[in-house]
């Protein structure tokens, strides 16, 4: 039994190794920071955004509900709001409300692309404290639909370019400003722009679209603000679950009605979440931010392969953004049954919205659902879906330029890659580039993030000016 004496020694060595690794898990060098002050006409930047917000560019899946004149109104404003861009840049309109500006550079080379969308989601005006499309300024904020998503970056890109042109600045290589008017309904505008690039042999050195932001209190043990740049985004799919029956009167229900059958299926999916996967974007985020966390979390993130089950357990219990980084998520959002309270429905259905981890696919997710529900009475069908995006590299000049612009604009923040859990137009650019970065040029509180697509959307004036500053810094490097 002498070997039993080795057990304490093995435990001691194991603990020593993980503690030493945690002690050596020190922060990496952060991006280059520019100390140059960038000044511009802040008041005009604010006024320009206000005028964009006053255009009711609301997109609907049912295009008959859209007011095309509001979209044309916004487009007609651009020469007035950004006169230097209008004079210097080539402007091309492509189908499905796609707008493309080309700012010709000094030399031939791979261009940079800066993106935004100018359509917005619908509003319930009765739930707003201020009119949603009047761009009222009060309490140091501009209030209105689209102030955050994403007319702020639409304005930021064009205002920054307009300002730099007025200074006589010319980029080294071409800059493209690519805007779509149907992102919120998965319109074809961005796809048409990518088709244009592909047809003309244009391979971007860098693409920047909406995505992460500068945020606080989003990573365990990290107190400093984090500038999160998405290097990939999850896929998305809506799945319908349908159960049919002979119907009948509710006074004499059979043992399994369509609704309670669906309820069982729902509970099974909730109680058996998808398997966690440590994908490259999440691993890079943990490796970057984990080095700035408290010692307890450093022990976990420095030894991530050993403690992955512990991290998985934390994610399952906490839910939210951290859990969404690790697995395909399932959120049940819609249910339909009988039209009368005393009638067993002849057909009942529910819908789940799912966000696909890069390790999963539409086909593998459907297979997992059917296996988990394990009920022939439940018909599972795909409504529509999009596969996860291509994962972009961080070992290139494109990443360095974006990271530097973030660090220089929001000094003191920790710049890190991450996996974007929402969908954006930038996913289409994976066809032509592995240098696609998702960063909404803002620092946002949790309340501000919650107002995106919600009521009383608004932006701090200093935030919208920072967006302009970010793009000025980024364009100076191009």
Would you kindly provide a brief summary of this structure?
37% of the residues lie in helices and 22% in strands.
Describe the 3D structure.
Helices cover 37% and strands 22% of the residues. The chain is of the alpha+beta class. The strands form four sheets. Strands 1, 2, 3, 6, 7, 8, 15 and 16 form an eight-stranded mixed sheet that branches. Helix 1 packs across helix 9. The longest helix is centred in the first third of the chain and has 18 residues. The protein starts with 5 loop residues before the first helix and ends with a helix. The relative contact order is 0.19. The mean pLDDT is 94.
- Poorly predicted regions are none
State mean pLDDT (0 to 100 scale).
Answer: 94
Strand tally is 17
Assign an overall shape.
globular
> Structural class of the secondary elements?
alpha+beta
Counting DSSP H or I runs of 4 or more residues, the number of helices is: 15
Approximate strand percentage:
15-25%
Q: Name the helicity range.
A: 25-40%
Largest sheet: 8 strands, mixed
Oligomer state equals single chain
Rg of Cα set: 25 Å
N-C termini distance? 69 Å
